[in-house]
């Protein structure tokens, strides 16, 4: 167990260091140490696995690829000495000793309970879902062991012994890297990234809500909504990849709202390196939100195009993988054509809005957004978040009701996984809408204080 913990820590430290070396400078609005930490760790996980993946697809072994990664990281550390010193000074200036409030303590206790649940689950059960075994851990173990893995497109073991060969390699390579540090494979390595991604998701939502609302209680509320999402704890231990997508998408949304367009593109590319879904669901939604935020009057369309260009540059690291799949005819599981399916809306409502799986979570989110849409439309960040939520939810609805992906709604599984991916954006939008709805009432109360009572009048005024 000690060796496993050391291996997991070693992989995280390496990813965080790589992300710190690659993290772009902050925009004019600045970036808090917490925001830098979350972005650097996610960016490092993406960059490290993409680097190793490129070398694996070029024919190198995992051992050779890891050696090259460590060498490149050491070289980057030497070259970036002045930049690291500037980053360290920025961190010290932005760091404030936290003074925890009671509600934040409750949130941390809730997080701790979910981690304890995950560790208990690890200790008492193996990985057992077919997708978790085949798509993610199975391929990770094949990469680590060098068996049932081939780069020959005619081989049954091409990219692993499975039918869905178009699935990205981010999670399998990350688990193989953990196993390389451990020099062995076990069920903790096969699933522990779910715990990491849940913590990063909660952190990304907490920090984004804190920046948007300026309120620590509302930020804690957004984080609590995220961690209490009905399927969050289950996905934390199941071995799936959807919490990874959720963390990257939430962090990308936070970067976009900070006007860090290039970083938002990098994190969106990281989400596409985890699963296929973000490429046709959340990347378009993030692009629309960015265009609305930067190009909406009184701003110019040129500013919107420039921002989209920076966002597009951030997406470039995922392009080689898309080209590789195109060359080898590895298609997405989106389905061909548009065809309406009778009863699909009712089935979607039963699955997402008022079914037992999600409870009232998404229904409340839609209700809050509908009520706060007017207030959100009057603010730049509000417009962007509203566009992101509406486009993301709308594309999910369209995908499962009007395309050949309808069977994935009928199976009662895939639609829930996609909603997990969108949960961070949902929690952030819900809390921000409620914050804007409550703001006029607070302003009205402050502008019209209640008249002083006789008992509260100072004694001298009473005598006069």
Topology:
Elements: H1 2-22, H2 33-57, H3 62-79, H4 81-94, H5 102-124, H6 130-145, H7 170-182, H8 193-213, H9 216-227, H10 232-238, H11 242-257, H12 261-272, H13 277-280, H14 282-295, H15 301-315, H16 319-327, H17 344-353, H18 361-377, H19 380-402, H20 407-410, H21 414-421, H22 423-447, H23 459-463
Rg, alpha carbons: 24 Å
Hey, roughly how much beta strand do the residues contain?
Answer: under 5%
**Helical coverage, percent range:** over 70%
Mean pLDDT: 84
Structural class: mainly alpha
Task: Tell me how many strands there are.
Answer: 0
Low-confidence stretches: 442-446, 454-464
| Helix-strand topology string | HHHHHHHHHHHHHHHHHHHHHHH
- Count of helical segments? 23
What summary fits the major beta sheet? Answer: none
Q: Termini, distance in Å?
A: 78 Å
Q: How would the global form be characterised?
A: globular
Number of domains: 1
Would you kindly provide a written description of the structure presented here, covering whatever features stand out?
The protein has 464 residues and is mainly α. The chain has one domain (2-75, 115-440). It is built from 23 helices and no strands. It has helices at residues 2-22, 33-57, 62-79, 81-94, 102-124, 130-145, 170-182, 193-213, 216-227, 232-238, 242-257, 261-272, 277-280, 282-295, 301-315, 319-327, 344-353, 361-377, 380-402, 407-410, 414-421, 423-447, 459-463. Helix 1 packs across helix 3 and helix 8 runs parallel beside helix 11 (242-257). It is globular, with a radius of gyration of 24 Å. It starts with a helix and ends with a helix. Residues 442-446 and 454-464 have low confidence and may be disordered.
